[in-house]
Amino acid sequence: MPRTLVAPARSIAEQLASKQREISVAEFFERNRQILGFDNPQRSLLTTVKEAVDNGLDASEEAGILPDLRVEISKEGEGGDRLRVAVEDSGPGIVRREIPNVFGRLLYGSRFHSNRQARGQQGIGISAAVLYAGLTTARPARITSKIAEEEGARVLELILDTQKNLPRIVSEEVQLWDREHGTRIELVLKAKYIRGRQSPLEYLRGTAIVNPHARIVLVEPDGTKITFERATSELPPISKETLPHPYGLELGELGYLLKASKRENIREMLSRDLAGVSVRASREVVAAAGLKGSEAPASLSGEAQEKLLAGLRGVELVAPSAEGLSPIGPMLIKRGLRNVLGEVRPDFFAPPVSRPPKVRGGFPFLVEVGLVYGGGLPADQPLQLLRFANRVPLLFQQGACAITSAVAAIDWRRYGLDQKGGSGLPAGPCLLLVHVASTKIPFTSEAKEALAEDEDLDRELTLAIQAAARHLKAHLSRVGRRQFASDKFAIIQKILPRLAEKASHLIDQPVPDLAPVITKIMDVVTLEPTVLADARSVQVTVKITNYTARPRVLEIFLEIDPTTLALAEYAPAPEGIDRGLGRAWWTLEKLASNARTQIELRFPARTDVEANDLDFYVAGVDEAHLLGADPLPGDWDVRLPRAIIEAAETAANGPTDEEEVDYDAAEASAHVSEDEG
Amino acid sequence: MPRTLVAPARSIAEQLASKQREISVAEFFERNRQILGFDNPQRSLLTTVKEAVDNGLDASEEAGILPDLRVEISKEGEGGDRLRVAVEDSGPGIVRREIPNVFGRLLYGSRFHSNRQARGQQGIGISAAVLYAGLTTARPARITSKIAEEEGARVLELILDTQKNLPRIVSEEVQLWDREHGTRIELVLKAKYIRGRQSPLEYLRGTAIVNPHARIVLVEPDGTKITFERATSELPPISKETLPHPYGLELGELGYLLKASKRENIREMLSRDLAGVSVRASREVVAAAGLKGSEAPASLSGEAQEKLLAGLRGVELVAPSAEGLSPIGPMLIKRGLRNVLGEVRPDFFAPPVSRPPKVRGGFPFLVEVGLVYGGGLPADQPLQLLRFANRVPLLFQQGACAITSAVAAIDWRRYGLDQKGGSGLPAGPCLLLVHVASTKIPFTSEAKEALAEDEDLDRELTLAIQAAARHLKAHLSRVGRRQFASDKFAIIQKILPRLAEKASHLIDQPVPDLAPVITKIMDVVTLEPTVLADARSVQVTVKITNYTARPRVLEIFLEIDPTTLALAEYAPAPEGIDRGLGRAWWTLEKLASNARTQIELRFPARTDVEANDLDFYVAGVDEAHLLGADPLPGDWDVRLPRAIIEAAETAANGPTDEEEVDYDAAEASAHVSEDEG
Description:
homodimer
């Protein structure tokens, strides 16, 4: 087999052996800096700003301080290929002894081992920026940090020694600083400033959208100052540290937990070191694993560990809590989207979707989705996708992101968008916002720009996006039907009287009363909401008119974002309310032919409620005879005594009755559309 | 500013500080294993096979041994979610003391610091597989390795301790092994075996294509055995270690080189530690930097270093050599494509494109491209893209790869393919192979599945792909023209005689000789190559017929892959040959109207030469009067005395002569198409 060898084999094995060497993690990333997001001057600038801002936000929030950030970017030197970047935050500051490691050492940080949602999780980002700066300009990073109870701020200049992956302090002093507490980092690096796509500006705008509690100032190289003011002074609930949940835990991971556990015995370890395992459950698990439960956690054999894991998988556990997570929430998603859209007024805001938390590899995560459609959005372009992870906008690598794949894998034609071959990004005037929150985001690389493919994540993404897509579909078909029916209505009301007039004139007879005729022809129940907003509140009046030939018992159902519903005042009072789902419903008095009634809603201290925000459904009349609302979807499990009685009555005394049938049909079809999920 | 704090600020800064901790690189990758390509069972299997196979190929080649690899994948245990993977290579083996670190320690290896092309460059891959195996099944890796001059093979079982990032040996013994030398790794991991897209099989097939010197055997879980036999027993030239080239060197990098240098003074350091810097150049650089040259490398101040770098950028240096690189080469690219296509016979093989080496960040790289079109390839699908980096197929993250972006950024409509909006992957029966070879590939993550965007890389990719695309365009237009002209030819030769017959019959006259008439109507020079292949050789006969009204002096030009040209025998002998470019040309005796002549080519010991491989060009007649070949493109700088004289003659005694004009036009247009590059 061996061909004329370059040298006798011994020395070859030895030669190769002699080349074997350890690689410093800093050397590795210095040589592969593209992995960290530093592969060209434009992206390197964005990454630097991103890492510093994310740290500032994390630090402020952890300390319960409203984030107040300032980003200054200015030209440096003659070459024109260097920029000075300064990012200042209002955080609690960093104690002197930690400053060098935090900024001058890769794989060092406070959030990696804590099982809670944070922007920074790797302990790499900001030190990587320091590394890149040193690499391209050989200039040290200048750190200024002050904690509340020290008079002066510590000012350190340091570089990252890549051979050792350790900080080297170049200079140190104490200075007065006007901030009470906070941190400022200044770097000089090879970089390029741009606006528009994938720019610091776009990143900061995206950040402001999902972090409305933060105030962010950007000073551009030409001196332009852009301020994103605070939209709320409410800090998001501080996400708690959570214990690892057994769902999706791998054998090896369980092994580490057992080894690391300080508990007396396995039963304790299970119930105290893991989330979702009650004392009772821990007993069941131990039993299922055929163990006593008194064994010392570290003592378990590999075999016993396997049995324990099987036990954990077999026993019913408490679902993972969202405590470790800090979702954006429906209101902010909506406000955020408005914010992005600016002047563009879309026709339709889908009610934001927020999935319950799930677990992958012991880490809880949840998916939120917002969708807007129509209006000024470009109709011939692909759907616009806004990706967020732990409240951080993702601007690069859209093509490699699990969020994108989930969107592309859905057949959007079923939901009313154009899509070539039923896969890939659909085309249409549609903007989709997707946020993944997790105590551990599965990024495809240290640059944190795309999420890795994962079955569990993909399922949640798909369900959330499909839910939003179903709202879109309902909207589109509603629009279509309304259009058709109201056109018909308009025509009849115009033409008939004229015909009647002409005819009466010819045969020289008085013009007959057409109301009953029109009713006969129209044969619909109409629902017309009108929204009146003033400076202090929003008033919604819903007119319901029975243009059918016979009396109707109608049930009106309202679906609206729960936080909005909570504020609402009603007349008449609804028969039932589901605050969790944001639903309210009324049973109207029997409404005679040609009769009209109305429901009034008031939203005090709200000015941003729109007709789009209110979804009305009607039971008691079938889809074909309904105008301005949809029949009640099949997935509403509210009981409808009156409607059913009424249906029965009419079935009894009425002639052939298409309603019951149609109503069932409506339900059926509603179920079908459910199955899409 | 500070809101009701969770606790007094001091303790907060302190609290945060107390959480600061170092993160072991193994812990980091254990938690972020998706970054290493271990995010789901299917991909984890592929990554494991890939890392082991790549190492086997690298080791064998470095030792000058023909690679002989065996991959065995078998079911393990009851659960059905575990597989046993064994990969065995014919390499030189690993000396005992290095085995633990090579397989049980991240960021440890022999190729990271060596500036030469290799598949593995990070010192992460195989240890990551060991880490993943331990994590999912808690089973140790079993390593068997034997070097030529030891009787027995070392057999170690080890796991990777993630807290320490160090190997822990579980068992060790010495065994007899039938191999003279080599290494085998056995892992049990949570994995899923599939065939088809992104499967081990696809990866190994791709590997075999661009590594025809390797023999690879795959045994699937169901026992199926697939063997990729060696296509050649020639090892590719072993790529040499090269010094870093100053082009694209960053200031910081230069700093490290200066610090690390063992040279007496800067002048020596420049000429000996850097590639492309002659002794003379080093003097110029030193002068340009305003230095003496006798300074000790380590002694230079930051300012002096900046000047030195400026000097390096200002002075003319020797271009980077391809010594450190091992391209696939035109023959193998072509054979490789045939191999992929199997039964699918395309209409057109573009001559493979290979760009000269360039440099990014001191590391040389080059781009190779192969393109095939038509035949059995699906016409309605997007172009199929085969990506390779250092002879390794890239199967994941196509959407995130610089190669894909380069393809998508080209307006393929200009080259005859469908493309919506002139960007994105074009549609058409087209297969594109792109190979990037470099001493350092800029992967987007440690999983090594996509190349990061980079200006220099993108330029080279674009130029190479466009060159291939131009060949495609030429082919398509040639096909179009030929079709039209030969249709015309056929019709005339059928219809005219019949007409003549009928007419003569009617007027009762003898049928006239039509040859001159047909000639007058056709007015073309035809070139018809016929290819005859037998078991031992290929015989090509090129018939040239002058169907124009007057005598022609013609020059025939042949372009063909140089290695094929080298073998050719000719009758008559060509007037000139350019072996480098693979070109030969003939000046024919004056060819009378209606006269015919021919050129014969023989390729002994070749059976795979096809009409498609031969591109013929003709000078001495304009495009409009040429059938079966193209006019000589403008970028051929061969001198054409006779043709020019002839053109002049005819210009002198002939009437208005469109040829010169058209010939210029042809040249012009050829230049234009060049400018697309």
